[in-house]
Design brief:
By secondary structure, the protein is mainly α. Helix content is 64%, strand content 0%. The N and C termini lie far apart (39 Å).
């Protein structure tokens, strides 16, 4: 995607966008290497004692439902698998990079934002298992794409606070989706910011591109399936009321999304029915991420 250099310069003059911390960055690079061992992954995580404690607590939570106690990072990696561990570390790391900001709750409730993001990840994962089309969706990549889909919003809220809040007010007053208000007020969207933020994160395209194109799925031929999956999951969050604030206009579901993924109304109903119990279990991820920050 071509990004206007002036827009990129504007963001970078406001703040140096954060890079992914070393532990998560290293894991992203080695996790898809077939020669990477559980011991090596456990060693990398073990370099960060706070992260290790959070990973163990999360591994033993109802979210994963492991019937026996996991007592070491090495056991966690062996039992849950490299991909799940990578998801956990990426999730906990990103939460830590963008902590809750109580001063702006009236327009952008940070806790509500993260619960919306987590729910979008969960729905993406559920949908990935129901797609009839012959697509080899990785459920963990689907979860990460959903979790991070709005990462550009929290970057703007934290680093160009006043400009972003002008866009949020425009969205409310004009009854238009937030991404349209961003474009109108700022000249760029949270998808553009996600592109700038993650260009050095070593994310696979299946995770990175949905962050950029989930409101404009027709603009990317590459990874179109998972972009559409993320777009649908985001729309379903609005359908089920798991949003930052219900006063913001929901995005429109693009024509042909269900057909492209070969999903039916029954699939959507099944995901909606599955969601409430899973959201309750999933909220522990957010609570664990906040430990030691308050």
């Amino acid at each position: 995607m071509h990004i206007d250099d002036q827009l990129k310069s504007k963001i970078r003059h406001v703040a140096n966008l954060p890079t992914l911390p070393q532990v998560a960055s290293h894991l992203m690079k080695i996790i898809n290497d077939p020669f990477t061992s559980a011991h090596e992954v456990a060693f990398v995580i073990g370099q960060d004692l706070s992260l290790s404690a959070k990973v163990l607590r999360l591994a033993n939570s109802a979210f994963y439902g492991i019937p026996r106690s996991i007592t070491s990072i090495n056991n966690a990696v062996v039992i849950l698998g490299l991909k799940v561990i990578n998801t956990m570390v990426l999730s906990l790391t990103v939460f830590d990079m963008f902590p809750e900001n109580k001063r702006s709750a009236s327009l952008f409730d940070r806790k509500a934002f993260w619960l919306h993001s987590l729910t979008c990840g969960l729905i993406s994962k559920f949908l990935a298992s129901r797609v009839k089309k012959f697509i080899l969706f990785d459920p963990e990549e689907a979860f990460c794409a959903g979790l991070l889909h709005d990462i550009g919003k929290v970057v703007m809220e934290q680093y160009i606070h006043e400009d972003f809040h002008r866009a949020l007010k425009t969205a409310r007053e004009g009854k238009i989706p937030i991404f349209e208000a961003e474009k109108r007020v700022l000249g760029f969207t949270h998808g553009d910011v996600a592109a700038w933020l993650t260009e050095s994160w070593s994310l696979p395209s299946e995770i990175q591109l949905p962050l950029i194109f989930h409101h404009d799925s027709k603009s990317s031929v590459q990874c179109a399936d998972i972009i559409n999956l993320c777009h649908l999951a985001d729309w379903l969050c609005y359908e089920t009321g798991v949003v930052i604030d219900k006063t913001y206009q929901r995005p429109i579901l693009m024509n042909g999304t269900l057909e492209m993924l070969q999903l039916t109304d029954d699939d959507i109903a099944a995901v909606k029915n599955q969601l409430p119990a899973e959201i309750e279990k999933m909220s522990i991820l957010y609570e664990i991420a906040r430990v030691e920050r308050e």
